[in-house]
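Run log // design_07
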């Protein structure tokens, strides 16, 4: 896809926030923190789908299995019944 096609479907902040499923203030904070790229045309702030996808990629986290107490800690925490 060429640059014209990428930029042809620009979204407002309200539209981009709705597409991401976040509030406008969350999007504003991400923009001010430099976590999402955007276009500024005059006073308008606009986004395209590629920028939203890049932002989502940076937000992606891999789930970690929550570890319970270690066996040694567990044996100390629970007294054994004889």
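design_07 sequence
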């Amino acid at each position: 896809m060429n640059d014209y096609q990428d930029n042809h479907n620009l979204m407002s902040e309200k539209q981009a926030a709705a597409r991401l499923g976040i509030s406008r203030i969350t999007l504003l904070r991400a923009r001010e923190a430099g976590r999402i790229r955007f276009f500024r045309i005059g006073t308008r702030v606009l986004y395209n789908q590629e920028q939203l996808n890049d932002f989502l990629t940076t937000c992606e986290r891999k789930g970690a299995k929550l570890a319970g107490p270690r066996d040694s800690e567990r044996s100390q925490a629970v007294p054994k019944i004889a």
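The longest strand covers residues 44-47.
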